[in-house]
Amino acid sequence: MAFNDDSFIREVNEELRSDQVKGAWRRFGRYLIALAVLIVLGTIGYKVYEYWDDNQSSGTGDKFIAAMKLADENKNDEALAALETLEKEGHGAYPILARLRAASVLAQKGDTAGAVAAFDLIGKDNAAPAAVRDAAKIRAGWLLIEGGTYDQVSAHVEEMAVPGNAFRHSAREALGLAAYKAGNIAQARQWYQAIADDAQSPRNVANRAQMMLDNITASGKAPAAQG
């Protein structure tokens, strides 16, 4: 199913306006997550790249790139072995970047619980740069949207859903999706409205938030935002 197919968007709109919130999530939740996660990964990638770029003089850079190539080719076990070596023997930024990439490979393999646990460890590691810790928390939160609870998602990302935080757009969208999935439509509206009210929200994020706000309003499930 193409994400940009007008018929798909219309079907999502109709389903979201119905009284079957949980049914809508079952049918379209993974597609909404897939659409949103692209910009989440882009934001994380940019922040982590900045950190990597500042440390690329290390002689282990080629090994890190080779490990990423293995992951991109879905040679997950080989990638994990290479990344584990970098965690132990790498210099400069590479051990923490290897841990971050290894957690992503676990998610890629379908080991969501293992990936969340790995991202959690990075997010709590005060020796890691703040941007890397925040990236790990965001990634864990997004992994928990489909299989976890709102409180679990919130515990990972809500501290970043504040003005001035570089990850606030991704954090707010994760919270909006988690609240919607949980059937707490009023809370979902609040998070989507925070995105809509932020002039710096990326266009794709703002567009998705506005679509959800329009459908929540049309469904009559939550009171209109107070001006």
UniProtKB/TrEMBL annotation:
Residues annotated as domain Ancillary SecYEG translocon subunit/Cell division coordinator CpoB TPR: 25-217
GO cellular component terms given for this protein: plasma membrane
UniProt keyword list: Cell membrane, Chaperone, Membrane, Transmembrane, Transmembrane helix
Pfam family, one: TPR_21
InterPro entries: SecYEG/CpoB_TPR (IPR018704), TPR-like_helical_dom_sf (IPR011990), YfgM (IPR026039)
Localization, UniProt: Cell membrane
Keyword Zinc: no
Membrane topology classification: Single-pass type II membrane protein
Keyword DNA damage: no
Residue stretches spanning the membrane: 31-49
Alphabetized GO MF terms: protein-containing complex binding
Assigned protein family: Belongs to the YfgM family.
Protein's UniProt name: Ancillary SecYEG translocon subunit
UniProt organism field: Rhizobium grahamii CCGE 502
